[in-house]
Amino acid sequence: MRKVFVKTRNVKNFIALINSLQQKYEGVSRIGLVYGEPGLGKSRTALWLAAQNDAVYIRSANLMTGRWFLEELVEELGEIPRYWTSDLFKQCINRLLERPQMIIIDEVDYLAGDQKTIETLRDIHDKTNVPIVFVGMTLAQRKLQKYKHLYDRLSEIVQFKPFSVSDVQDIVAQLCEIEVTEPAIGLIHSHANRFRQIVRLINRLEAVANTNNLQLIDENIIKEIMKNDSRQSYENNKGAKYILAG
Length: 246
What we know:
With 246 residues, this protein is α/β, with parallel strands linked by helices. It has 2 domains: 9-160, Rossmann fold, CATH 3.40.50.300; 165-245, Helicase, Ruva Protein, domain 3. It is 57% helix and 12% strand. It is built from 11 helices and 7 strands. The protein has a 5-stranded parallel sheet with strand order 2-3-4-1-5, with helices on both faces. A two-stranded parallel sheet has the order 6-7. Helix 5 (115-128) links the parallel strand 3 and strand 4. The longest helix is centred in the last third of the chain and has 27 residues, at 219-245. The model is unreliable at 237-246 (pLDDT under 50).
């Protein structure tokens, strides 16, 4: 499999959001939101864009408090966290004023229930004017709507949508080292519509092609793989039922 970062429609929209935030004039809000179902490549894209733009990337965690978040941010900014929460906040502000960096916060859903943390993020944006990008799940937009002062500052919103056939074709064409026919792409799209699923299937297709000395993957091979998967799933479920019955 080729090591390539595939720019799907969702990725291109994420890039456009980043560019738009960076180009906004002084005084215009520079907060963005990217949200969508799991498995569409949001986190993968966020990490890639953070590296491309020298941005700070923080992945929120369950039970993360405002103080915990500030400690993570201070460390990512290259500072040693101080003890008092007020000092941590000042460290973030001073460092970002001295050396502005975009902040990308992944899994923002974990923070959406903590008003103090959300308001702290708004304060950081207002005091430094650095771009801040929230990345979350399907309900992230709705969860943030209850914080009116923050939500009104969302100047860019992008929803990651399920892959189109064209997206799947791009992913397979750029990653897979074996040619795959158009009808086979259609079958992949109908049965594997998450990035991880597609990557796993590409690995299997390449293994099948190498084992059987194939130069082309057609819909018949895809159907055979899916048939084997269904058979294996049935056997596993039957075994599980047997164990439970025993």
